[in-house]
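Risk mitigation, structural track. In case the binding assays with nicotinamide-adenine-dinucleotide fail to produce interpretable data, a predicted complex structure has been prepared as a fallback.
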Amino acid sequence: MQPLRIAIAGTGMIGAVHADAARRAGARVVGVSASSAQRAKAAATRLGAERSFDSSEELIAADDVDVVHICTPNDLHGPLVRLALAAGKHVVCEKPLSVDAADADALAALAEGSGLINAVPFVYRYHAMAAEARHRVRSGAIGPVRLLHGHYLQDWLLRPTDDNWRVDAAAGGASRAFADIGSHWCDLVEWVTGHRISELTAVTQTVHPERAQNGSVATEDVVHVVFRTDLGATGSVVVSQVSPGRKNRLWFEVDGAEHSVSFDQEAPETLLFGGREHTESVIRDPGTLSAEAARLSPVPAGHPLGYRDCFAAFVADVYDAVRAGSGTGTDPLYPTFADAARTARITDAVLRSAHSRNWIEV
Ligand SMILES: NC(=O)c1ccc[n+]([C@@H]2O[C@H](COP(=O)([O-])OP(=O)(O)OC[C@H]3O[C@@H](n4cnc5c(N)ncnc54)[C@H](O)[C@@H]3O)[C@@H](O)[C@H]2O)c1
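Fallback model:
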Protein backbone atom coordinates (compact mmCIF):
# COMPACT_ATOMS: atom_id res chain seq x y z
CA MET A 1 0.00 0.00 0.00
CA GLN A 2 1.28 3.49 -0.92
CA PRO A 3 1.81 5.81 2.07
CA LEU A 4 -0.80 8.56 2.48
CA ARG A 5 0.30 11.93 1.09
CA ILE A 6 -0.46 14.78 3.43
CA ALA A 7 0.20 18.53 3.42
CA ILE A 8 0.18 21.08 6.22
CA ALA A 9 -1.11 24.66 5.95
CA GLY A 10 0.46 26.66 8.79
CA THR A 11 3.80 25.69 10.26
CA GLY A 12 3.90 27.32 13.67
CA MET A 13 3.89 25.53 17.00
CA ILE A 14 1.17 23.04 16.16
CA GLY A 15 2.05 22.56 12.48
CA ALA A 16 5.34 21.00 13.61
CA VAL A 17 3.45 18.64 15.93
CA HIS A 18 1.19 17.59 13.02
CA ALA A 19 4.24 16.90 10.84
CA ASP A 20 5.76 14.67 13.51
CA ALA A 21 2.48 12.81 14.09
CA ALA A 22 1.94 12.31 10.34
CA ARG A 23 5.36 10.72 9.96
CA ARG A 24 4.83 8.49 12.96
CA ALA A 25 1.59 7.32 11.31
CA GLY A 26 3.53 6.39 8.16
CA ALA A 27 2.45 9.30 5.90
CA ARG A 28 4.57 11.33 3.50
CA VAL A 29 4.66 15.05 4.30
CA VAL A 30 4.37 16.19 0.69
CA GLY A 31 4.41 19.91 1.42
CA VAL A 32 3.71 22.87 3.64
CA SER A 33 2.41 26.43 3.25
CA ALA A 34 2.91 29.44 5.50
CA SER A 35 2.04 33.13 5.58
CA SER A 36 4.42 33.74 2.64
CA ALA A 37 6.23 31.66 0.02
CA GLN A 38 9.56 32.50 1.64
CA ARG A 39 8.42 31.36 5.10
CA ALA A 40 7.00 28.18 3.58
CA LYS A 41 10.41 27.37 2.01
CA ALA A 42 12.13 27.77 5.36
CA ALA A 43 9.44 25.71 7.10
CA ALA A 44 9.73 22.89 4.54
CA THR A 45 13.45 22.64 5.34
CA ARG A 46 12.86 22.85 9.09
CA LEU A 47 10.11 20.22 9.09
CA GLY A 48 11.63 17.97 6.41
CA ALA A 49 8.67 18.38 4.04
CA GLU A 50 9.22 17.37 0.40
CA ARG A 51 8.37 20.82 -0.96
CA SER A 52 6.83 24.18 -0.11
CA PHE A 53 3.73 25.75 -1.63
CA ASP A 54 3.48 29.47 -2.35
CA SER A 55 0.04 29.60 -0.73
CA SER A 56 -2.42 27.43 1.21
CA GLU A 57 -4.79 27.58 -1.79
CA GLU A 58 -2.07 26.03 -3.99
CA LEU A 59 -1.42 23.36 -1.37
CA ILE A 60 -5.11 22.40 -1.24
CA ALA A 61 -5.37 22.21 -5.03
CA ALA A 62 -2.34 19.91 -5.43
CA ASP A 63 -3.20 16.58 -7.09
CA ASP A 64 -0.75 14.60 -5.00
CA VAL A 65 -2.26 15.48 -1.60
CA ASP A 66 -4.74 13.09 0.07
CA VAL A 67 -5.16 14.79 3.45
CA VAL A 68 -4.90 18.51 4.25
CA HIS A 69 -3.98 19.58 7.79
CA ILE A 70 -5.10 23.15 8.59
CA CYS A 71 -2.91 24.68 11.31
CA THR A 72 -3.27 28.39 10.56
CA PRO A 73 -4.69 31.17 12.75
CA ASN A 74 -8.39 30.60 13.49
CA ASP A 75 -9.98 33.04 11.01
CA LEU A 76 -8.55 31.03 8.09
CA HIS A 77 -9.94 27.66 9.21
CA GLY A 78 -13.42 28.01 7.71
CA PRO A 79 -12.34 29.32 4.28
CA LEU A 80 -9.57 26.71 3.94
CA VAL A 81 -11.86 23.85 5.07
CA ARG A 82 -14.39 24.84 2.37
CA LEU A 83 -11.69 24.84 -0.30
CA ALA A 84 -10.29 21.50 0.87
CA LEU A 85 -13.68 19.75 0.91
CA ALA A 86 -14.51 21.20 -2.53
CA ALA A 87 -11.20 19.78 -3.77
CA GLY A 88 -12.15 16.34 -2.42
CA LYS A 89 -9.48 16.31 0.30
CA HIS A 90 -9.82 14.68 3.69
CA VAL A 91 -9.30 17.35 6.34
CA VAL A 92 -7.74 17.60 9.77
CA CYS A 93 -8.56 21.14 10.94
CA GLU A 94 -7.32 22.70 14.14
CA LYS A 95 -9.76 24.02 16.71
CA PRO A 96 -11.77 26.18 16.73
CA LEU A 97 -13.29 24.86 13.48
CA SER A 98 -14.64 28.35 12.83
CA VAL A 99 -14.72 31.68 14.66
CA ASP A 100 -18.52 31.58 14.30
CA ALA A 101 -20.83 28.90 15.77
CA ALA A 102 -23.34 28.89 12.89
CA ASP A 103 -20.48 28.61 10.41
CA ALA A 104 -19.00 25.69 12.38
CA ASP A 105 -22.37 23.90 12.10
CA ALA A 106 -22.41 24.60 8.36
CA LEU A 107 -18.88 23.23 7.96
CA ALA A 108 -19.76 20.08 9.92
CA ALA A 109 -22.81 19.54 7.68
CA LEU A 110 -20.75 20.14 4.55
CA ALA A 111 -18.13 17.64 5.67
CA GLU A 112 -20.75 15.06 6.64
CA GLY A 113 -22.38 15.41 3.21
CA SER A 114 -19.05 15.04 1.43
CA GLY A 115 -18.29 11.60 2.84
CA LEU A 116 -14.71 12.79 3.39
CA ILE A 117 -12.90 12.16 6.65
CA ASN A 118 -12.97 15.24 8.89
CA ALA A 119 -11.24 15.52 12.23
CA VAL A 120 -10.33 18.12 14.85
CA PRO A 121 -7.44 17.53 17.27
CA PHE A 122 -9.14 17.45 20.65
CA VAL A 123 -6.19 15.25 21.46
CA TYR A 124 -6.51 15.09 25.23
CA ARG A 125 -9.00 12.29 24.55
CA TYR A 126 -5.95 10.28 23.51
CA HIS A 127 -4.33 10.22 26.97
CA ALA A 128 -4.62 6.63 28.17
CA MET A 129 -5.69 7.73 31.67
CA ALA A 130 -8.39 10.02 30.27
CA ALA A 131 -9.70 6.98 28.39
CA GLU A 132 -9.51 5.02 31.64
CA ALA A 133 -11.55 7.75 33.36
CA ARG A 134 -14.11 7.42 30.58
CA HIS A 135 -14.25 3.66 31.01
CA ARG A 136 -14.77 3.97 34.77
CA VAL A 137 -17.53 6.57 34.37
CA ARG A 138 -19.30 4.87 31.47
CA SER A 139 -19.14 1.37 32.97
CA GLY A 140 -20.90 2.65 36.09
CA ALA A 141 -17.86 2.01 38.33
CA ILE A 142 -18.20 5.43 40.01
CA GLY A 143 -21.99 5.28 40.31
CA PRO A 144 -24.41 7.87 38.92
CA VAL A 145 -22.59 11.08 38.02
CA ARG A 146 -23.49 14.04 40.21
CA LEU A 147 -21.02 16.79 39.42
CA LEU A 148 -18.33 17.66 36.90
CA HIS A 149 -15.77 20.31 37.69
CA GLY A 150 -12.30 21.50 36.86
CA HIS A 151 -10.21 24.11 35.16
CA TYR A 152 -7.88 24.83 32.27
CA LEU A 153 -5.21 27.34 33.33
CA GLN A 154 -2.22 28.82 31.52
CA ASP A 155 0.08 31.80 32.19
CA TRP A 156 1.59 32.66 28.81
CA LEU A 157 -0.59 35.81 28.50
CA LEU A 158 -0.04 36.90 32.11
CA ARG A 159 1.55 40.29 31.38
CA PRO A 160 0.37 43.15 29.15
CA THR A 161 3.62 42.75 27.21
CA ASP A 162 2.57 39.16 26.32
CA ASP A 163 0.77 39.15 22.99
CA ASN A 164 -0.32 36.90 20.14
CA TRP A 165 -2.61 36.86 17.10
CA ARG A 166 -5.20 35.05 19.32
CA VAL A 167 -5.69 38.30 21.29
CA ASP A 168 -7.06 40.00 18.17
CA ALA A 169 -10.73 39.06 17.64
CA ALA A 170 -10.32 39.45 13.87
CA ALA A 171 -7.74 36.64 13.72
CA GLY A 172 -8.71 34.53 16.73
CA GLY A 173 -12.47 35.05 17.04
CA ALA A 174 -14.64 36.89 19.58
CA SER A 175 -13.76 34.40 22.32
CA ARG A 176 -10.09 33.84 23.12
CA ALA A 177 -9.48 31.88 26.34
CA PHE A 178 -12.66 29.83 26.09
CA ALA A 179 -12.44 29.06 22.37
CA ASP A 180 -8.73 28.35 22.63
CA ILE A 181 -8.60 26.08 25.70
CA GLY A 182 -12.06 25.95 27.33
CA SER A 183 -13.18 24.10 24.18
CA HIS A 184 -10.69 21.31 24.97
CA TRP A 185 -12.03 21.00 28.53
CA CYS A 186 -15.64 20.76 27.37
CA ASP A 187 -14.86 18.25 24.65
CA LEU A 188 -12.88 16.07 27.04
CA VAL A 189 -15.38 16.13 29.90
CA GLU A 190 -18.37 15.49 27.63
CA TRP A 191 -16.47 12.64 25.99
CA VAL A 192 -15.51 11.11 29.34
CA THR A 193 -18.98 11.34 30.87
CA GLY A 194 -21.48 11.20 27.98
CA HIS A 195 -23.14 14.20 29.65
CA ARG A 196 -23.76 17.28 27.55
CA ILE A 197 -23.67 20.80 28.89
CA SER A 198 -27.27 21.87 28.34
CA GLU A 199 -27.43 25.30 29.96
CA LEU A 200 -24.87 27.62 31.47
CA THR A 201 -24.11 30.95 33.01
CA ALA A 202 -20.72 32.59 32.52
CA VAL A 203 -18.61 35.49 33.72
CA THR A 204 -15.70 36.68 31.59
CA GLN A 205 -12.85 39.01 32.50
CA THR A 206 -10.32 40.87 30.39
CA VAL A 207 -7.45 41.49 32.76
CA HIS A 208 -5.45 43.57 30.27
CA PRO A 209 -7.62 45.92 28.20
CA GLU A 210 -4.44 46.93 26.32
CA ARG A 211 -1.64 44.70 25.09
CA ALA A 212 1.72 45.51 23.57
CA GLN A 213 1.15 44.71 19.89
CA ASN A 214 -2.62 44.37 19.53
CA GLY A 215 -3.46 47.57 21.41
CA SER A 216 -7.00 47.57 22.78
CA VAL A 217 -8.24 44.04 23.62
CA ALA A 218 -11.81 42.79 23.09
CA THR A 219 -11.20 39.10 23.92
CA GLU A 220 -11.35 37.52 27.38
CA ASP A 221 -8.42 36.33 29.54
CA VAL A 222 -10.60 34.53 32.10
CA VAL A 223 -13.92 32.67 32.08
CA HIS A 224 -15.93 31.14 34.94
CA VAL A 225 -18.81 28.88 33.87
CA VAL A 226 -21.48 27.17 35.97
CA PHE A 227 -23.59 24.63 34.09
CA ARG A 228 -26.21 21.87 34.14
CA THR A 229 -26.04 18.78 31.94
CA ASP A 230 -28.73 16.99 29.95
CA LEU A 231 -28.40 13.98 32.30
CA GLY A 232 -29.06 15.91 35.50
CA ALA A 233 -25.57 16.72 36.78
CA THR A 234 -24.22 20.16 37.67
CA GLY A 235 -20.74 21.50 37.03
CA SER A 236 -18.30 24.35 36.80
CA VAL A 237 -15.06 25.21 35.04
CA VAL A 238 -12.53 28.03 35.32
CA VAL A 239 -10.54 28.92 32.19
CA SER A 240 -7.63 31.35 32.34
CA GLN A 241 -4.57 32.36 30.35
CA VAL A 242 -3.28 34.62 33.15
CA SER A 243 -2.73 32.19 36.08
CA PRO A 244 0.90 32.48 37.26
CA GLY A 245 2.76 29.18 37.31
CA ARG A 246 0.08 27.26 35.45
CA LYS A 247 1.43 26.21 32.06
CA ASN A 248 -1.15 23.90 30.54
CA ARG A 249 -3.14 22.79 33.56
CA LEU A 250 -6.14 20.98 32.14
CA TRP A 251 -7.69 19.23 35.15
CA PHE A 252 -11.11 17.68 35.65
CA GLU A 253 -12.95 15.67 38.24
CA VAL A 254 -16.15 13.65 37.88
CA ASP A 255 -17.89 12.89 41.17
CA GLY A 256 -20.23 9.90 41.22
CA ALA A 257 -22.36 8.48 44.02
CA GLU A 258 -19.63 5.97 45.00
CA HIS A 259 -16.34 7.16 43.53
CA SER A 260 -14.68 10.06 41.76
CA VAL A 261 -12.15 10.15 38.95
CA SER A 262 -9.78 13.06 38.42
CA PHE A 263 -7.24 13.62 35.69
CA ASP A 264 -4.45 16.19 35.28
CA GLN A 265 -3.09 16.65 31.76
CA GLU A 266 0.28 17.73 33.17
CA ALA A 267 0.63 14.46 35.12
CA PRO A 268 -1.02 12.11 32.63
CA GLU A 269 0.54 8.87 33.84
CA THR A 270 -1.91 8.58 36.73
CA LEU A 271 -5.62 8.85 37.46
CA LEU A 272 -6.96 9.55 40.92
CA PHE A 273 -9.76 7.12 41.77
CA GLY A 274 -11.43 8.48 44.87
CA GLY A 275 -13.62 6.70 47.42
CA ARG A 276 -14.71 7.48 50.96
CA GLU A 277 -12.90 4.44 52.39
CA HIS A 278 -10.06 4.18 49.91
CA THR A 279 -8.50 6.53 47.38
CA GLU A 280 -6.02 5.22 44.85
CA SER A 281 -3.60 6.75 42.37
CA VAL A 282 -4.00 4.40 39.41
CA ILE A 283 -0.87 4.17 37.26
CA ARG A 284 -0.81 3.78 33.50
CA ASP A 285 -0.13 0.06 33.30
CA PRO A 286 -1.56 -1.48 30.12
CA GLY A 287 -1.66 -4.84 31.89
CA THR A 288 -4.27 -3.64 34.38
CA LEU A 289 -6.23 -0.98 32.48
CA SER A 290 -9.41 -1.19 30.42
CA ALA A 291 -9.04 -2.18 26.76
CA GLU A 292 -9.73 1.44 25.68
CA ALA A 293 -6.88 2.76 27.83
CA ALA A 294 -4.51 -0.13 27.04
CA ARG A 295 -4.94 0.60 23.30
CA LEU A 296 -3.52 4.10 23.93
CA SER A 297 -0.60 2.71 25.89
CA PRO A 298 1.98 1.56 23.32
CA VAL A 299 4.85 1.35 25.83
CA PRO A 300 4.88 -0.40 29.22
CA ALA A 301 4.18 1.28 32.56
CA GLY A 302 6.99 3.50 33.80
CA HIS A 303 7.87 4.77 30.30
CA PRO A 304 6.03 8.11 30.33
CA LEU A 305 3.79 9.12 27.44
CA GLY A 306 2.89 12.72 26.61
CA TYR A 307 1.22 15.27 24.37
CA ARG A 308 3.00 14.25 21.16
CA ASP A 309 2.07 10.62 21.76
CA CYS A 310 -1.59 11.63 22.02
CA PHE A 311 -1.27 13.57 18.81
CA ALA A 312 0.34 10.63 17.02
CA ALA A 313 -2.40 8.25 18.21
CA PHE A 314 -5.10 10.70 17.07
CA VAL A 315 -3.54 11.12 13.61
CA ALA A 316 -3.06 7.35 13.29
CA ASP A 317 -6.82 6.82 13.93
CA VAL A 318 -7.72 9.47 11.36
CA TYR A 319 -5.43 7.97 8.72
CA ASP A 320 -6.82 4.48 9.41
CA ALA A 321 -10.27 5.87 8.64
CA VAL A 322 -8.96 7.51 5.43
CA ARG A 323 -7.36 4.24 4.33
CA ALA A 324 -10.47 2.24 5.20
CA GLY A 325 -12.55 4.72 3.16
CA SER A 326 -15.14 4.30 5.86
CA GLY A 327 -16.48 7.85 5.97
CA THR A 328 -16.97 9.48 9.32
CA GLY A 329 -19.59 6.89 10.33
CA THR A 330 -21.91 7.32 13.26
CA ASP A 331 -19.42 7.13 16.12
CA PRO A 332 -15.80 7.43 15.03
CA LEU A 333 -13.06 7.05 17.62
CA TYR A 334 -11.50 10.39 16.77
CA PRO A 335 -13.09 13.85 17.32
CA THR A 336 -14.83 15.20 14.22
CA PHE A 337 -16.10 18.49 12.85
CA ALA A 338 -19.43 17.70 14.56
CA ASP A 339 -17.63 17.64 17.93
CA ALA A 340 -15.90 20.93 17.11
CA ALA A 341 -19.22 22.50 16.08
CA ARG A 342 -20.59 21.46 19.46
CA THR A 343 -17.77 23.25 21.32
CA ALA A 344 -18.36 26.31 19.10
CA ARG A 345 -22.00 26.35 20.27
CA ILE A 346 -20.89 26.14 23.91
CA THR A 347 -18.42 29.00 23.29
CA ASP A 348 -21.20 31.05 21.73
CA ALA A 349 -23.44 30.39 24.77
CA VAL A 350 -20.60 31.45 27.10
CA LEU A 351 -20.20 34.79 25.34
CA ARG A 352 -23.95 35.40 25.18
CA SER A 353 -24.36 34.59 28.88
CA ALA A 354 -21.46 36.82 29.91
CA HIS A 355 -22.86 39.64 27.81
CA SER A 356 -26.50 39.34 28.96
CA ARG A 357 -25.80 38.09 32.53
CA ASN A 358 -28.40 35.34 31.96
CA TRP A 359 -28.54 31.56 31.88
CA ILE A 360 -28.33 30.41 28.26
CA GLU A 361 -29.41 27.08 26.75
CA VAL A 362 -26.73 25.45 24.61
N1 LIG B 1 -5.16 20.96 19.28
C1 LIG B 1 -4.29 21.55 20.05
O1 LIG B 1 -3.92 21.03 21.10
C2 LIG B 1 -3.73 22.88 19.63
C3 LIG B 1 -2.57 23.39 20.25
C4 LIG B 1 -2.05 24.60 19.78
C5 LIG B 1 -2.67 25.29 18.75
N2 LIG B 1 -3.82 24.79 18.20
C6 LIG B 1 -4.49 25.51 17.09
O2 LIG B 1 -3.62 25.52 15.97
C7 LIG B 1 -3.73 26.74 15.24
C8 LIG B 1 -2.34 27.37 15.11
O3 LIG B 1 -1.85 27.63 16.41
P1 LIG B 1 -0.28 27.75 16.70
O4 LIG B 1 -0.13 27.75 18.17
O5 LIG B 1 0.48 26.75 15.90
O6 LIG B 1 -0.02 29.23 16.15
P2 LIG B 1 1.35 29.81 15.57
O7 LIG B 1 1.22 31.27 15.63
O8 LIG B 1 2.51 29.15 16.25
O9 LIG B 1 1.33 29.31 14.06
C9 LIG B 1 0.42 29.76 13.07
C10 LIG B 1 1.14 29.71 11.75
O10 LIG B 1 0.21 29.98 10.68
C11 LIG B 1 0.94 30.71 9.68
N3 LIG B 1 0.02 31.36 8.75
C12 LIG B 1 -0.56 32.58 8.82
N4 LIG B 1 -1.31 32.78 7.71
C13 LIG B 1 -1.21 31.67 6.94
C14 LIG B 1 -1.75 31.26 5.68
N5 LIG B 1 -2.55 32.06 4.96
N6 LIG B 1 -1.43 30.01 5.19
C15 LIG B 1 -0.62 29.20 5.89
N7 LIG B 1 -0.07 29.55 7.08
C16 LIG B 1 -0.38 30.76 7.60
C17 LIG B 1 1.81 31.65 10.50
O11 LIG B 1 2.90 32.11 9.73
C18 LIG B 1 2.26 30.73 11.65
O12 LIG B 1 3.45 30.05 11.32
C19 LIG B 1 -4.73 27.59 16.01
O13 LIG B 1 -5.98 27.50 15.39
C20 LIG B 1 -4.79 26.97 17.39
O14 LIG B 1 -6.04 27.10 18.02
C21 LIG B 1 -4.33 23.61 18.62
